[in-house]
Q: What sequence folds into this?
């Protein structure tokens, strides 16, 4: 006999009954038409299914051309940020039951980046901003022969911003970024924060100078969309504020 | 079609690929081709830690680490490779710290270390703190740090490019290679997902770092994209795959979902309990209990369920109990995995035990390499200019069962080694000529799949494959169950020839790529099962209920599996006569099994007790 999970599918939280849900998806295929359209699909969902499960059901059983990115399927790779019922979320971390499945659930690509096909956007501008803030440890002098020491308190100082998975949920929820694609955006600032507040790093002033630019942190209007959107629970707006404060208090 | 020329081409941008790139791009013109954006790679899902005998918090040394690795792998480990792994672990961790990795720290500011399964002091005396970690997102921090350093070094990436063929200057599936004759890897063919265009990359050296194949199973901790691409490409080109029957089932997947909950949960004091609340690991591994190696814990859990002591309405899982730990401790050390339990099962780990069951996690086997990362084309000879590192490769440091925290270590040690070796080789090597049309196979394959007007759905075939693998080739296996799986796979291979896609377009056609990936999965599942049928013993992650004991007299050998046309030879260089002389015929090809000796240095095989 072989042990199997076949019967375990409902899982302990499986008391939530199955239900039918309508997925209203923003479709765009430049090989077919220049205009995006809405398309509804009705799928059977289990109690604990996520939005990603519903998208897979559509792609695998109904329409293979539905296009989206996904990989890890549990909220750590950052592939499947999308706009679900008007809010940026990871499809793999959003349970259908939590986004009011009684009404059609709308799914659109994240905003502010060029749409390639259906829910897929061109991520290059996003990564270009990230690369610009020098997202790597900058040190001078000889490397130590063992590890650099860092106190647990110093390590804790930037812990929150090390959680970033570069999914772009924050940046593409930012109204400033929507109107001005040149703005660095929250994700790049979060990743600058991760190094500016790392006690081992000596490149803080260079990064602050970059972010002091007209497309830098001062564009932030503190709307908190980014903090709400972050699937990793990073206090994004707070991090941006801390970078602003560092600019004022640190001479560079 | 576009053609590129690089000294070194690295396929895959997870931990191993990027670690290799950081070495090779300093010395040679290097390109990294990846089917995902680098930060999406599954290295980022690794949680618990990276082993290295730093002795930062208690007495430890690399020799103990070597022993644990050998014993953990049930003595199928090549001991010279395990020694390199354990020795170079220390420098590998320090490399990462200097690159900026934010490890958790001791009160004095050193890299902190914690306990993990199978890692012990003084050859099994008690559990030792050897895992260097960053909360429960160590893999995430490694992936980010390596990518950050690739940005710093301006490494060139081709993102969302799928490598679909490996080019060599000899056809290894049919040609008899004369003694002393060189076989060279000359390039790869890739498909640009965004445009649908074909690109040819000519290279002096190629490193495969494509990761694992967990999607041959239904219940898995692996990403959707882990479809065994690199293994399958090498295998189809006539290269052997080593020890494919050994697949690790991680004990603590979220029940019903397979999402990984790190062994660090037990390293930090978590306890596995059955429906009676009993700490059952005390019966199976009296000394280190819940921190026994994964194969033993997974089997013990499955056995509890089988004997009726499973928890839940269907009695089909066991419980991971963290409720005796301080919430503050859980938040500091295990924030992500407790969040998974809350998000996906609605369980609050502070107050309720978490339902868990083994989940397919890691391929111990893969493309055989030597300790420089050079790929073997039989038991003895290498392919010049071809390297492999990480889960796609089999060095073999994991033998028949990998210890937790040894894979983040493996990608760093052997990623670095293969990157260095490839760049070194590329300095003196020259480009080899490519065939007149190197894309012919890939174009034919894509066209055939895209142009088939109607046929079976890819998802249906994939689901049937994953179902049979979970049912018949999981923690417990028998000759009968494995033969059942093989007969299902034969049928599915036939159905696959009639599969079709609905998306016929050129741009971002993920429908087409999923169909191609299914072909890889079928081939990898097939060779896994054939090798498992042949190995009539139980060792590490391969447990045969019809042969419950380890059989060193007959099976202390690595399996080497080759896929060849029916008329090709049944022999391979370096093969040892014995229980591995098996040929399995399929429709249009055959799988030939051979073997390779296990390298033993210091440690005589002993009975494995914990």
A:
């Amino acid at each position: 006999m072989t042990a199997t999970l076949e019967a375990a599918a409902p899982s302990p939280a499986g008391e939530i009954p199955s239900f039918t849900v309508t997925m209203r998806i923003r479709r765009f295929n430049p090989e077919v038409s220049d205009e995006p359209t809405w398309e509804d699909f009705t799928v059977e969902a289990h109690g604990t299914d996520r939005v990603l499960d519903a998208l897979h059901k559509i792609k695998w059983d109904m329409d293979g051309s539905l296009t989206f990115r996904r990989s890890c399927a549990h909220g750590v790779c950052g592939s499947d940020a999308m706009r679900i019922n008007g809010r940026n979320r990871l499809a793999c971390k959003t349970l259908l039951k939590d986004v009011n499945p009684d009404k059609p659930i709308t799914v659109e690509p994240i905003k502010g980046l060029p749409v390639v096909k259906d829910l897929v956007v061109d991520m290059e501008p996003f990564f270009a901003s990230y690369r610009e803030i020098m997202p790597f440890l900058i040190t001078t002098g000889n490397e130590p022969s063992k590890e650099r020491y860092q106190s647990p308190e110093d390590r804790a100082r930037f812990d929150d911003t090390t959680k970033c998975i570069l999914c772009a949920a924050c940046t593409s929820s930012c109204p400033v970024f929507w109107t001005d694609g040149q703005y660095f955006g929250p994700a790049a600032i979060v990743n600058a924060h991760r190094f500016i507040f790392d006690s081992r790093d000596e490149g803080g002033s260079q990064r602050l100078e970059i972010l002091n630019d007209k497309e830098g942190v001062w564009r932030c209007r503190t709307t908190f969309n980014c903090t709400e959107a972050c699937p990793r629970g990073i206090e994004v707006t707070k991090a941006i504020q801390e970078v602003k404060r560092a600019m004022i208090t640190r001479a560079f | 079609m576009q053609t590129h020329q690089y000294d070194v081409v690295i396929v895959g941008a997870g931990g191993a690929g990027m670690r290799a790139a950081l070495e090779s791009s300093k010395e040679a013109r290097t390109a990294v081709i990846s089917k995902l954006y680098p930060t999406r790679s599954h290295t980022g899902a690794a949680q618990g830690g990276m082993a290295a005998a730093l002795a930062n918090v208690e007495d430890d040394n690399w020799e103990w680490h070597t022993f644990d690795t050998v014993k953990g792998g049930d003595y199928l480990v090549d001991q010279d490779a395990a020694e390199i792994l354990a020795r170079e672990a220390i420098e590998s961790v320090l490399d990462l710290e200097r690159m900026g990795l934010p490890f958790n720290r001791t009160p004095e500011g050193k890299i902190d270390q914690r306990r993990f399964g199978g890692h012990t002091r003084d050859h099994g005396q008690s559990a030792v703190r050897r895992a260097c970690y960053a909360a429960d997102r160590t893999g995430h921090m490694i992936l980010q740090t390596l990518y950050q350093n690739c940005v710093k070094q301006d490494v060139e990436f081709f993102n969302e490019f799928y490598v679909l063929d490996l080019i060599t200057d000899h056809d290894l599936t049919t040609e008899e290679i004369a003694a002393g004759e060189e076989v060279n890897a000359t390039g790869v063919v890739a498909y640009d997902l965004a445009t649908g265009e074909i690109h040819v990359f000519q290279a002096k050296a190629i490193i495969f770092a494509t990761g694992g194949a967990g999607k041959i199973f239904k219940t898995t901790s692996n990403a959707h994209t882990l479809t065994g691409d690199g293994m399958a490409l090498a295998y189809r080109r006539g290269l052997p795959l080593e020890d494919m029957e050994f697949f690790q089932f991680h004990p603590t997947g979220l029940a019903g979902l397979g999402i990984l909950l790190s062994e660090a949960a037990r390293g930090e004091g978590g306890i596995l309990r059955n429906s009676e609340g009993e700490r059952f690991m005390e019966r199976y591994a009296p000394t280190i209990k819940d921190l026994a190696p994964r194969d033993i814990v997974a089997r013990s859990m499955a056995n509890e369920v089988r004997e009726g002591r499973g928890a839940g309405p269907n009695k089909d899982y066991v419980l991971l109990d963290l409720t005796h730990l301080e919430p503050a401790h859980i938040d500091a050390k295990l924030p992500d995995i407790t969040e998974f339990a809350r998000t996906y099962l609605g369980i609050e780990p502070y107050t309720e035990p978490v339902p868990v069951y083994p989940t397919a996690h890691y391929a111990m086997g893969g493309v055989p390499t030597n300790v420089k990362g050079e790929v073997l084309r039989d038991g003895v000879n290498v392919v010049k200019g071809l390297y492999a590192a990480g889960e796609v490769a089999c060095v073999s440091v994991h033998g028949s069962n990998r210890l937790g925290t040894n894979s983040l270590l493996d990608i760093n040690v052997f990623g670095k080694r293969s990157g260095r070796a490839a760049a070194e080789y590329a300095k003196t090597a020259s480009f080899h000529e490519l065939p007149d049309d190197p894309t012919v196979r890939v174009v034919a394959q894509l066209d055939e799949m895209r142009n088939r007007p109607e046929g079976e759905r890819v998802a249906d075939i994939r689901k049937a494959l994953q179902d049979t693998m979970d049912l018949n080739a999981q923690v417990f296996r028998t000759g009968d169950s494995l033969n059942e799986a093989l007969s299902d796979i034969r049928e599915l291979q036939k159905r696959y020839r009639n599969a079709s896609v609905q998306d016929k377009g050129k741009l971002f056609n993920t429908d087409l790529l999923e169909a191609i990936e299914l072909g890889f999965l079928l081939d990898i599942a097939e060779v896994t099962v054939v090798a498992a049928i042949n190995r009539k013993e139980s060792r590490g992650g391969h447990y045969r209920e019809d042969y419950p004991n380890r059989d060193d007299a007959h099976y202390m050998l690595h399996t080497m599996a080759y896929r060849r046309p029916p008329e090709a030879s049944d022999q391979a260089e370096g093969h040892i006569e014995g229980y591995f002389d098996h040929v399995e015929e399929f429709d249009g090809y055959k799988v030939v099994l051979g073997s390779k000796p296990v390298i033993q240095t210091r440690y005589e095989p002993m009975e494995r007790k914990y």
In short: Chain B touches chain A through 88 residues (CB under 8 Å). The radius of gyration of chain B is 23 Å. The mean pLDDT of chain B is 97. The first strand of chain B starts at residue 2 and ends at 11.
